[in-house]
Structures are given as structure tokens and as C-alpha cells.
Amino acid sequence: MSLQSVRSFLSEHAPDIQILEAPTSTATVMEAAAVHGVAPGQIAKTLSLRLKDEVILLVVGGDARIDNRKYKDRFGAKAVMLPADDVPEWTGHPVGGVCPFGLPRQLRIFTDVTLKAFDVVLPAAGATNAALRIAPARLAELVGAEWVDIAQAKPGA
User: Which residues 6+ apart lie within 8 Å of 85 measured at CB?
Assistant: First the structure.
């Protein structure tokens, strides 16, 4: 059902984008990067977070981590991951397949500037073996995301 909700979303909003279904799991950043032949940072991982009385989605580069100080400065609260058992209820997608497309309810979505380092990123597409290729700006535009800068700087950056 989750993969189908992404297909439906794309057919309505971006019919030119194809879902890439792999024969093996792409549920982790490293698996997805290996299967698709890209750098881990190019995998656009979607984090489900509880922010006060709401759930938000944060899409960041696959090799990025939340900077707790930046997060608290931006959102006024500590970053709290949604329990894995609650993720499908809120997103309609399984852990490892969570993406900002085809959601069962309206959630605020944020895209981190780490994605802007790439011309194309690969978010999941509603299943643990599905992804798609998309420009970061188009991803943000399609889902009405707000750009934020809350990831930790990479060593040497």
C-alpha cells in the first residue's frame, strides 16, 4: 500500500519521475548507496520526529546527523525520533522506506541544506527496496518543504 501511495502521488504531481525498485534491500543508507552506485550523502533519508504536539519529517543527506544545538535553536525543542512502531501510522511507510511522498496525513516537511551539495538525491519511495532520483529543489517543491540548516558539519568541511 505504501509503495502504491507514492506511485499515486507521483502520477498526479510528477509523472516524469520513475520509482526504482531494487531486488535487494535499500532500507539503510549504506545499502541504498551501494545498490544505486552513489555516495551515502546522496541518499536523502527521511527522519520522523516528534516536535511538541506534532510529527514532522526531516529529509537530510544520508551521511548527515542532526546537530542538537541547531535543531533546538530552530525548533525550540530537543530532537526526538518517533518510535519505530509509530512511523507507519504517521507516514504510511515502513521504516527503511519512509519518504515525504504519498503521506496519509498532512505533516510539516523540512529539507536540510546537506541535500543541496548534490544535483540529484535518492529518497526512499515507500518500500524498503524502492527509491527515486530527484533534484533537491524539486523534492522540496513537490512536498512543500521548508529548507533548514540543522545537520552537523562534516569533519573537514
Answer: none
Does domain 2-148 fall under CATH 3.40.718.10? My reply is: no
Q: How many H-runs (helices) and E-runs (strands) does the chain carry? A: 5, 8
Give Cα 68 distance to the centre of its chain.
18
Q: Could you write out the DSSP letters of every residue in 71-101?
A: HHHHHSS--EEPPGGGHHHHHSS-TTS--SS
The percentage of the chain sitting over the pLDDT mark of 90, rounded to a whole number, equals: 94
Stated as kind and residue range, the H or E segment containing 11 is helix 2-13
Please state the pTM of the whole predicted model: 0.94
User: 6: which residues sit within 8 A by CB, 6+ positions away?
Assistant: 19, 93, 99, 101, 102, 125, 126, 130
